[in-house]
Amino acid sequence: MIEIEVEADDWAAALPEVEAVVERAATAALGRIEGDVVVLLTDDAAVRDLNGRFRDKDKPTNVLSFPVPESAAPHLGDIVLAYGVCADEAVAQKKTLADHLSHLVVHGVLHLLGRDHEDDAEAEEMEAEEREILAGIGVADPYAADAESAD
Q1: Which domains, ranges and CATH numbers included, belong to the chain?
Q2: In terms of C-beta distances under 8 Å and separation of at least 24 residues, what long-range contacts does 71-76 make, across chains too?
Q3: What is the rounded distance in angstroms from the CA atom of residue 20 to the CA atom of residue 22?
Q4: What is the number of helices (H) and of strands (E) in the chain?
């Protein structure tokens, strides 16, 4: 089950189908894995607070993932997204908010499933998995612009 909580009205104002976008991306990322995920769509201030409390970083970020211990099954964890950061990134990266949100939800769910990007090998593996999942729901490669700028 995927529970979606829209705490910041900006999300629905900018993307009326925001809950459907999140549901589709989270479902695709989970694949056949059964478990509950909570996705909180909030504002930069709330994410800044969480980022400070749990990661000692006094700034908002696009997405935070909070996996729970396996003993808490079937709940896999929580994902929190900051509207302002996500919207600004979408504009800067010339992506739709829906596509960027889809990418970040997939990214967050993969963290809940134990994926990480602490080193180059992990990052490449996680990015490949993200690309495959996103392609399955019709979202373009979120890293294509990065690859083009590296050429």
Answers
A1: 2-150 (3.40.390.30)
A2: 73/35, 74/34, 74/35, 74/36, 75/35, 75/36, 75/37, 75/38, 76/33, 76/35, 76/36, 76/37, 76/109, 76/112, 76/113
A3: 5
A4: 7, 4
Residue 83 and residue 91 in contact, taking contact as beta carbons nearer than 8 Å: no
Enumerate the known binding-site residues for Zn(2+): 107, 111, 117
Q: pLDDT tens digits, the chain, 151 residues: what are they?
A: 999 999 999 999 999 999 999 999 999 999 988 899 999 999 999 999 999 999 999 999 999 999 998 766 789 999 999 999 999 999 999 999 999 999 999 999 999 998 888 888 888 999 999 999 999 999 999 988 655 544 4
Q: Are 97 and 83 in contact (CB under 8 A)?
A: no
> Which residues carry a binding-site annotation?
107, 111, 117
pTM, two decimal places:
0.92
